[in-house]
Structure formats: C-alpha cells, structure tokens
Amino acid sequence: MCDFSRRLKNILGNGRKPNGTKPLHDTRLKIKGNRITAGILDILYPRRCPVCGEIVAQRGRSICKDCAPMLKPIKGVRCYRCSRPLLEERQEFCYDCSRKKHVYQQGIAVFGYQSPVAQSLYQLKYHARKEYGIFYGHYAAVYAKKQIQAWKIEVLIPVPLHPSRLAKRGYNQAEVIARAMGEKLNLPVVTDAVKRVEKTKPLKELNPQERRKSLQRAFMPAKNQAHWKNVLIIDDIYTTGSTIDAVSRDLKETQRAEAIYFLTIAIGIGNN
Predict the structure, then answer these.
(1) pTM (2 d.p.)
(2) CA-CA distances (angstroms) from residue 156 to 19, 139, 151, 169?
(3) What is the pLDDT of residue 29?
(4) Both 122 and 226 in a single domain?
(5) Residues 61, 99: one domain?
(6) Which of 265, 269, 259, 271 is nearest to 234 (CA)?
(7) Which of 20, 110, 112, 190 shows its CA 20 to 30 Å from the CA of 80?
(8) Do residues 152 and 230 make contact, with C-beta atoms less than 8 angstroms apart?
(9) Chain center to CA of 266
C-alpha cells in the first residue's frame, strides 16, 4: 500500500477502532471537563456520510464503505497554474489560465466539481453539514501534503464570508476546511488577515466579467498585519479564480505575503 493510500485509509476509517486517529466528531467536543467516549458520541452525534448523507453504520469510519470509492481525486495531467484537469498531456495551461494572468502563484484542487462532490459541498454550505467540511479538510491534508510542504507554506488563510452570510450560515465552510487541514498538517489558521466588506451576489449567478467586477472591493485588510513568505488560501470551490485573485491581491498590495498559493476541495472541469 502506497503512503497516500495508507494515510487516506486513516481518514476514511476501516470499520475498526482507529489506529492513532480519532473519528471526525470527537476531536472537538468537551462538555465541562468530562471526557466522553467515542462510542457514546456515536450515539449522540451520529456521523453522516458526505456522499449519501446516511448515518455511517460502522464505528471508526467517516464515510460509508460503499461510498468511499465514489470519491475520485484528480489524477493525471492538470493545469500548471490552477490545477484544472487537462485533456492532453502536451498542454501546460487550461483555457482560462492561458488567457488570464492570475495574482496567485499556483494552486491545487482535490476533486473535479462534479457528482457526488458537488452535491456534498452544497450540503456543507447550505444545509448545515459542517462535518462534511471537516471530512474534506482531513482528506485534502492527506492528498496535498507533499505539495504544501514543497511550497513551504507558513499559514492557512480561509476565504472570509461577509458577516451577514456568516451569521445566517453559522460557520464559514472555508474556515472549517482550513482548521481540519491545520490540525493534520500542524499549520496555523489565520482568520483575521482579510475581511469581506461587501456582500456580493452569489458568484454562481454571474459570468466571469461580472465576478471580477463584483469582487473588486469585496475584501479589505483586517487587523492582523503580520508578514509571511508563503501562504495558502483555502476555499471550497474554484470556478474562475476571481475570489482567490481578489484575496491574493489584498495580501499582495498590503505587502503581507510574498508568494500566494491556494487549495480548493473542488474545481470546475470545463474550459480545459
């Protein structure tokens, strides 16, 4: 078994008591100093599979055994800049990146934005499936660990939500993913470097030009004015790169980051 497969098995679980790993839900709950066993938590807070949405029957697993093979991470040739899957090996860049200069240096995506990941991320964002974000954060940490180390990343910066959306949703899905990754990779998560000051329309409703215009003044520097050499922006979905570019531009213009990379759980697979 290769190193990636072995580490990924620790994330997915094997139906037995995890070997040195903890189920996704029992690393965060503390009830007034009392340590509650994983078995009791399985009863009180049953984990749901991020693919089918059903309660995971086997202890120690974070996804149904039959659903795990349905998650197919990106393999093979991909765009050098944004990580979008490419059709031909001789290609270096996808159609979008060949026509547009990005602010960020490079990025990596774990999955193509298609079924079942697309539906799963929708549940994470709009139907309070926060545990899905934790699952995908752990998965991404295993998948991209070597690349993140090669980039010499110092901090993880989740794309911020506008305060009104954060209040309505109850959490920022990008931050949930980032914190799960930081836990696995032993990297700090910085949430006060950039703030969202303009509530934009849902970007999925806008074309690329409208996205860029909408995001021009969407972000501003927050109170953390630290300087880093290499930062990793975390988001759930990459479509055109406009959001990543907007956050990157704010960090670059205020001279708080020298090299900016990104990781998203999914990336659109059109225009390749």
Answers:
(1) 0.84
(2) 27, 16, 12, 22
(3) 43
(4) yes
(5) no
(6) 265
(7) 190
(8) yes
(9) 8
